[in-house]
Amino acid sequence: MKFPTRLTYALRMMVEISKRSKKDVPVPLTEIARVTGTSRNYLEQLAMLLKSQCLLQGVSGRRGGYRLAKPAGEIKMLDVVKATMGPIQLTQCVSRPETCTRSDACESRKLWMLINLRIDSVLGSTSLADLTDPERLASMSRQIDDLYAGEDSFLARERQEEIPAGRDEPRGNGIGSDGNGHLPLFGQSLPDPRGSMHDVRCEGVEKDDYLEVLAWLQEELQLRVGDKDVSIPVDRQNARLVYTTNVREVKYMPFSLLAAAEIFHAAREDWTMVTAGWDSNDLFEAFLEGGPTECLDTRVFSSARKLHAEKVVLSECGHVVWPPRWGTAQLASVRMAFPVESFVHTMLDYVRGERIRLDPSRNAEPVTYHDPCLFGRYYGITEEPRYLLAKSVADFREMYPNRLENWCCKGGGGLPMEYNFRRAEISRIKVDQILRTGAKVVVTSCPNCIDGLGELVGEYNLDLKIKSVGEVVSQALIHH
Q1: Per-residue pLDDT reduced to its tens digit, 133-146
Q2: The pTM is what?
Q3: Domains assigned to the chain
Q4: pLDDT (tens digit, 9 = 90+) per residue, 411-420?
Q5: Stretch 445-452: mean pLDDT, rounded?
Q6: Which long-range contacts link 209-215 to residues 24+ away (Cβ below 8 Å)?
């Protein structure tokens, strides 16, 4: 079972409002949007659901916003779940036994009912106040550790299959480490990235959640360009190009996807997204499983073929660019089913071909660029992002060291999150490099790097914004 994306954002909004609530002073949604990186328009829709269940109160006026409708301790997580998605129902027969003729004698139904009740129990006993209480959060962490503890524990065995047994001895050639799991010295090149992706676990997004995100991003796009008829096309036949995103962008960084849609609109591009094969990581996983030839058979290309598209454009992520653009180029006998390129190169063509116009003054704050390991060290994609930034920002400041000698965002974006203690040891170096530029915006072309840099912002309480190249370019757009 997966909870819908709207629940993730609704819970995040409730937590932020709870943390910022002072007596009866409402919290503006613009502030919540800034902190959570979520569209204000989408937050407004979620707020309506929460208001209908008496969890939030809206306050109109110049200093209006939202506040909790009752004390945080009285708002249970189960209330938020029911407000945004309805009752939890692992199977239909749990709450509606009449839907199945075997319900009365079904052994499996008892298991589903027990699991359902326990989920309800945890959510019903956890309040919003618990999620903003450091002691309660620490207690949750201890409970999680206890569940994983013990050699005979089922959870421990499952965990050992997914991650290395000991935190002090990382395995594999994770990005940012050598073959023995050690962090590289300054200036050293990185190992083969294939080892890391076997360790990384990205939370999935169901089709309905993906389409839901596209729907509210479309509304946001209409507001941005001032045209209620503009759309984010899905499964459009005979479109010139298919644009693929990835799980992290849809779930945690939707504004990078919105930026791409706005740029396509400004370029008058004939484009589409797809409902099957939209996750460009599919290419990378296929490459890991069977090499370059497997890339030809992925859902990405299958969808593009069915739609009669001419080209596939991949979002800003070095992992997904590697298999089609460089991996298959090593084998002359393998021909790609479609021309494939990174969105960075697509934007470059738009600017050079004058298909989009940019006004650097719209990005007035000082900007610096962080070279992602894969884009920079592996593929040498270092000048293309800088060309786009030179056209898009008024004050670009180079970070040193850079390009092939760039210091990793936080000890290896591809390493499992269990190794945060290693990342923390070297993160101060990156922080100092950023602060020396005096920049207020750090731009990069990698979801892993956006994650890592975002962690630094929170860890060191930095006054910085982290954006993708596409987001900065879209901010500078001059719409016809």
Answers
A1: 888 888 888 877 77
A2: 0.64
A3: 5-125 (1.10.10.10), 134-197 (no CATH), 207-351 (no CATH), 358-478 (3.40.50)
A4: 555 544 444 5
A5: 82
A6: 209/2, 209/4, 209/5, 209/6, 209/250, 209/251, 210/250, 210/275, 210/278, 211/275, 212/4, 212/5, 212/6, 213/5, 213/250, 213/254, 213/257, 214/257, 214/273
